[in-house]
Design brief:
Elements (H helix, E strand, L loop, with lengths): L1 H21 L13 H12 L8 H10 L5 H20 L11 H15 L10 H17 L7 E6 L4 E7 L8 E7 L6 H14 L3 E6 L4 H7 L8 H13 L5 E11 L2 H9 L7 E5 L5 H6 L4 H9 L2 H13 L5 H14 L4 H7 L16 E6 L8 H9 L3 E6 L12 H16 L1
Helix pairs in contact: 1-13, 1-14, 2-3, 3-4, 4-5, 5-6, 9-10
Amino acid sequence: MDSLVLSLGSMIVTAVVLGSTLVMAQAPVLPLSSDASFNFNILVALGEAIYGGSDIAPVLGAALEIDPGNFSSYSDVFRDLADHTKAQAQDPVNAYDPVNVKDTWFSAANYFRRADFYLHGNWTDPLIDLFWKEQTAAFDNGLAGLPVPGKRIRIPAGQFTIETIWFSSSLQISPRPTLILGTGYDNAQEDLYHTFVVPALARGWNCLTYEGPGQPSVRRGQDIGFIPDWERVVTPIVDFLLTDLAEEVAASQLALLGYSFGGYLAARAAAFEPRLSALLLDGAVYDFHSTVVAMLPPDLLEIYDTGNKSAFDTAIRAVLDNSATSSNVRWGLEQGLWSFNIKSPFDFFEATLLYTAKDILSKINMPVWIANSEYDGFFPGQSKHVADILGERATLHNFTGVAGNHCQIGANQELGRAMFAWLHQIFR
């Protein structure tokens, strides 16, 4: 035990340094926080402004108020902004018409999602559910202001139910190209509206966003963590689209997109779903386990490799409880435990071994578009590796410079131009 304590002391220092570099390689843009994780996630909120998901000055004001590295400060500041924005949307003078407050509601929903982001270290925190109820209600009010209001649809899938939102590009019923959009490790399907749905609708595409096990609404409402066999999620969605919505969905123009960790999930599903016409990965994930292991300094990795579950769990808890641990490491581990619905850090690391594309890429028989981000600190090199394995089936698009963040955060226009240009080539 003495050797473990000595090792733990150096491990915490190393984890702080490692955590600051895990996502520190960010695109060359003006920093919004001295905390690398906060900087990235404030940019997420700011980036959604171009498609009605936030307002620029309020987010910059929030960035100024947040105490770097303080999870409570981050949550409190965004909650205050969310409450203030919600009050503006509810003001009868403003709310004379749903269209007038549509983006106000969407912004309030986004700010409630930001307020929730760093809370998952304490599973019993009532704010986790409260903020999600608030963001869901606010987002639904925003949906009501759309020219074709979005509809929440629940799709049964055996042991769980998939939570989806359907967006039709027109009031006229006819088959149209359709995107199935899935997120990953942390973001919500509502975020996908402000990243992909708005530009898709403008180009005549229908969209269905969804959440499965481990993702926000299913993790909360059904108490189910991530599953590796993601075809159990996507195949029921395809069934639904091609039966219940057959009059609106062009069966030969059905594409699936996976965002961030969703790059593994979507690839896995596409390997077992031949009815899909195209696959988009932003970016590709070959081996998720290597990403979570990268959070471990050598001392802690050595403990993990011995298989000593008790020692490893004790060491991880000490890191999480230490105020000096970087936000990247602390959030990454806390979010993993919560989203996988696993209490033991050792069991979480072991569970991630199942999330590999090694044996499925040969089964993908459709054109694949892959985003490769120059400054991706989460899955560095994995997009190119997957593209190399797929060979002629893959188109690798390199995002560099200010568009080079993980998932092109803050550069949504460039992302949209590139992916829809590829889809146009595939389906013209």
